[in-house]
Amino acid sequence: MCDLAGSRHALSRFHRRSRGAGQDCGTGLPVTGLTDAALLEAVRHTFDRARSDPAAPFRIGVAVSGGGDSLALLHLLHLVAPDAGYDLHAVTVDHGLRPEAAAEAAQVADFCAGLGLPHDTLRWSGPQPTGNLMDQARRARLDLIAGWARARGIGHVALGHTADDRAESFLMNLARASGLDGLSGMRAVWADAGVIWHRPLLGQTRAALRDYLRGQGIGWIDDPSNDNDRFTRVKARRALRALAPLGITVERLSGTIDNLAVVRATLTGVTAQFARGIREESGALVLPRDLWAGWPEEIRRRLLICVIRWMNGASYPPRAAQIAALAAGLDLGRDATLAGVRFRARGDHVLITREARATMPPVVWGMTWDHRWQVQGPGGESLHIAALGAEGLRQCPDWRQKGPREALIVSPAVWHKDRLIAAPLARNEPEWGATLGPSFGMFILAH
Questions:
Q1: CA 330: distance to chain centroid?
Q2: Domain 279-355 in the same topology as domain 5-256
Q3: 70 appears as a binding residue in the annotation
Q4: H or E stretch including 134?
Q5: What's CA 313's distance to the chain center, in Å?
Q6: Which of 116, 137, 158, 441 is the most buried (most CB within 10 A)?
Q7: Pairwise CA distance, residues 434 & 125, whole Å
Q8: Residue 128's pLDDT is what?
């Protein structure tokens, strides 16, 4: 472990060393060499491209573990922020899996204080007794950070993954016999849980970022789990070193991943075009059976995966065999339920809705409900958002004019204890509204 406590004045040291070293391609940022200039430009380019209105405030969250990758990202963004007009906020997740974790989070907080950046530490309640520990920790980390960002009005969050992470993930997915999606690499940008996530450093190597930190006199934390052979990623890291004599390096694999990503992006665009034949209605989807019958197998598979993930908010799709069985059943006009999503044959179409018992429990006013619904109106702390349900629907006499029953009972409603206050989708509510984010078409393109 390298101590971060002595790094709080690294920024001023950076500026002292860089005077007279040149400027970064017109950005006005001081640089110490071509490598630093490229890193700064990569970070700034990512967020300038994501910024819709240069004159509006632009809040960015940075996930910082204290490791070299995330710490370099934080420092680079801190240098870019004043000139670019970014409002930075740092966050660290303490998973509680190692005794040193709390002290490491405190070191990150101290480093951020030295840079004058606001910082929060989030704590995970702990893993489930069964399941992949690292995967649970990863999902918990993203969920916690997403909630933190939404609560602070932060729409964009930066993660410090590198080209090495892409290469390691490629090998791990290759061992699982993954298809195009698994082999086409980590996404540079995507939307999930009400946040837009960015990986500005996917084109940079881990070694380059550590060289950058050494040049600024900044220490970082080395997680001992990075050397633990129990973890698949560590095995992939060592396999990469063994493959280097064959010319299979991080740089070479990055080129392969880029080529596959181009193919994936093209296929995603084609899938979104086919999806235009699917109609959204009160949070449900209406799939014409004649269109379904004429679609290529791969398009059907991709659309089913997108439908399910759009509705249930899952990070991963169901197993391939389950998707294949679902598709075969739809061909035969059979009803089905998979991963919290219902498929019901209705004459010339299939009605796709959320499964009632799979919807999220109530959430306090202002929070996103069931992964995708946001309710607007004169709410308050005493109110909560939950499914309308059959009992709530009975209080909406004109619901048949609003949409299918299967869709409305799983639509969001505003409650005060057991009293229905508003049902924005099932009855006329001038002061209330409910919006989906994102739409199904946008979800396909963003995922």
A1: 30
A2: no
A3: yes
A4: helix 133-151
A5: 11
A6: 158
A7: 31
A8: 58
Q: What is the C-alpha separation between 140 and 233, in angstroms, rounded? A: 18
Contact 80, 201 (CB under 8 A): no
Number of Cβ within a 10 Å radius of residue 36: 24
Note whether 389 and 396 are within 8 A (CB).
Answer: no
Q: Specify the DSSP class assigned to residue 30.
A: B
Rounded to 5 degrees, φ, ψ at 89 are: -140, 130
Going by pLDDT thresholds of 50, 70 and 90, the confidence category of residue 67 is very high
* CATH architecture type of domain 279-355: 2-Layer Sandwich (3.30)
Domain 5-256: top CATH class: alpha beta
pLDDT at 50: 93
- Output DSSP code: residue 369: B
Global pTM value: 0.78
**What is the rounded CA–CA span in Å between residue 3 and residue 447?**
38
219 marked ligand binding residue:
no
The per-residue pLDDT for range 236-270, each reduced to its tens digit, is 999 999 999 999 999 999 999 999 999 999 999 99
Domain ranges in the chain are: 5-256, 279-355, 359-440
- Contact, 61 vs 117, CB < 8 A? no
Tell me what the pLDDT averaged over the chain comes to: 88
Residue 441 has which token pair? 């078409």
Q: Where are the alpha helices (DSSP H) in 332-411?
A: 389-393, 405-408
* Terminal alpha carbon distance of the chain: 36
Cα dihedral 43, 44, 50, 56 in deg (nearest 10): 140
Alpha helices in 275-415 (DSSP H): 289-294, 297-312, 320-331, 389-393, 405-408
- 382 labeled part of a ligand binding site: no
Task: Give the span between the Cα atoms of 280 and 19, in whole angstroms.
Answer: 57
> Is 437 annotated among the ligand-binding residues?
no
Tokens of 118: 């606001």
